[in-house]
Structure formats: structure tokens, C-alpha cells
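Bug #77: duplicate submission created two jobs. Keeping one. Sequence:
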Amino acid sequence: MSAQRKGMNRPDRVDHVPMMAQMQNIIDFPPAPKLDAFKRLDPAKANPTELAGEKIFMSKGRCAECHIPQESFLDHQMHDLKLERFYRVGQTVNDFVFMPDGPIKTLTLRGIKDSPPYLHDGRLPSWPTRWSSSTSCSA
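Kept job's structure:
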């Protein structure tokens, strides 16, 4: 039985794929009025807590190693974050069994506060969940 008859509609590469790419190019990141041209916080616009967070992001947290500010906070690479550090392997939550994932693509952080749940598979329901286990992004 063909995939088409099963209900899978593979896009016609000649027509659909260019249209999807064109649509993706229309969608942009949300505005970030506190960032300067180099994607760093503007001290005149950011509050002390935000500036302290940026300092951790750039140094102790090592987040900027993969979430490169000048590259829209990503590096187009795969990284093994060893996420099993943050859960018991085999634990089930919301019908999701936690297993080691291996490498995952670096996701952008632009607009992240407006897009829960977090991580590539949505296993972290809120932003503070991630930081309750570790202060470093890197594995």
C-alpha cells in the first residue's frame, strides 16, 4: 500500500517545498528591544537582573558556546547535553518515558519565554525547571 493511500501527503518538491520555504522566511523572531546590534543586552535598557543573567549566560553558564548571540542564539550543530542528568532513566511523566537522547540540534533562544514547554521534546514544562538542576548549559 502506498503512503499516499494511507493518508500521508508527501509534498510535491517542485511546488510545495519552495512555498513552505518562502513562508518560513516570512516568519521572523519576535522583537528584542533590549538587544543591541551585536545581540547583547543594552545596559541602558536592561535591568540589573537581566544584566546579571547575561553575565552568567556568557561566562559561568557557558550557554553562549552553543547559543551564539550573533547567530540568533544558535550554532547549527548537534550536541549531546546528557539530559539524563536531569531525570531518572525509565521514569514516566505524562505518558512520556525518559530515555537518553544523544545529540540534539541547538535551538534558538529568541522568544523562548513565550514558547513553553522547553527542550527539543517539551519535557520541561517551565523555564525554572531547567535551572533547578544545574547552572551550566554544557554537558
